[in-house]
Amino acid sequence: MVKEKVSKGSGRSRLAGLELGPPTLIVVVLQQTSSQLFNPRSQPSRMHPIWNIPELLAYILSFLDDKSHLLQCALVCRAFSVEAAPLIWKEVEDFRHLFGCFPNNTISMEMSGDSSSPNRTFLFLHLPHPAEWDHMRSRASMIKELTFSEFDNYDAIIEVIHRQKIDLTFPELVSLNFYIEVAKRFQTFLPLFAASRLQKLDISFQGSNDGLINAAMETLLAQAHPFRSLEIGATSFPELSQNYAIQLLETTPSINSLCLGLPTLDGEEMVEVAGRLPNLQNLRLEFCDNDGERTTYSPGFRSLVSLDAWAQYTIALAIVQAMTSPNIASLQLNILDEIIEPLGNLFDSIATMANLNCVVLFFHDSEFPQWEDVEPLLSCPLISNFHVNVAGFKQQRLVSICQPDPIRRVLKVDSRVLGKCFRVLALRSKSVGEGTRRGQQKKEGPHALTPTSVTE
């Protein structure tokens, strides 16, 4: 029976293969389960909450071409299976954009630019009458996630909304993604979300218009959203905006995930403040310029579980050394500059993280680390996922990690199997440390391990 298949998970694999192109496949599922699946009481744990809003569901399905039968089913039945819900959401991704709250007969869309990433300009077909404005407000009150793409231009629509003094708000909105190249649009968009209680914000500033960036950050600070996830990216972040951002961090202790993609000098003070966030668990830093001079950070980040940093070696080392969190389990570092000084300090600092179980290191423009650098990490008992990558390796190029005397062993590995090599090295280093080093060396002889022996 279909109901049993869905509950056991096989229904998910069957639906996952659909692209909602041939609607009859999904309709068959709906028709065969009409007496059970559509009854909310029969499967209270299998229903997706969005199906409890028939009008919203009907609007979502209106974006699907030639799905009238499926749309009709949606209007009379109040629920779909939970497996079908994410598929339909995926197919109608445009609903997560602003025009999702406008009825189809009120706006037009003009396409321009490249076909792979076209620019879309939205215009009102006519000035909406009061009933249509009410309809838009009703739809806006249902939306929980919005994305503003750099390819979408809503300027004309927003201008009409402001000129007509339309109170269009998004009280249920919790996730907002801003990817806009024209900084001026932030001033017109952000007032729409004053009544929202945003938990997730991803905002990227392009260009260097300090006045507009400052105005946007001031607005965000004044709106006082209870953020849990915050991402801020900018090619240039003026000092006043830094101050607003610092105040935002200081007044939002609910933040547990923070991503800063800023010029190094613009973001360092924010990192200091982030270290004092009581609930911060995930921190991602993208300091990708050559202006960093900081070599120390104040200790902090006591709740941190995951750190992902793109930075120069000195900055990455300073951040790692500031990690006093006993809970940190995942560390990913992308070292962007050439390393002149020994890597030992970095690896020694990483090795002190008691609960670390995942380490991913990527070295750009650097030589591969030597055995004496890596050895402290190989002795960490909890690390189960260890990857080291070096930019510029060709697929067949061999690298050498030389273990110092008295055990002169050279391990040659292909760059594709580095992660497994380190696990082998960890096991061998333990056995060597138990007093069997010289005996083991006599048995095996002074031969180098080959890539074949590592991958077996």
Automatic annotation (TrEMBL):
Stated name of the protein: F-box domain-containing protein
Biological classification of the source: Eukaryota, Fungi, Dikarya, Basidiomycota, Agaricomycotina
CDD domains on file: F-box_SF
Species the sequence originates in: Tulasnella calospora MUT 4182
Pfam families for this protein: F-box-like
F-box domain ranges (all copies): 54-91
Annotated segments matching region Disordered: 433-456
Biased composition (Basic and acidic residues): 435-446
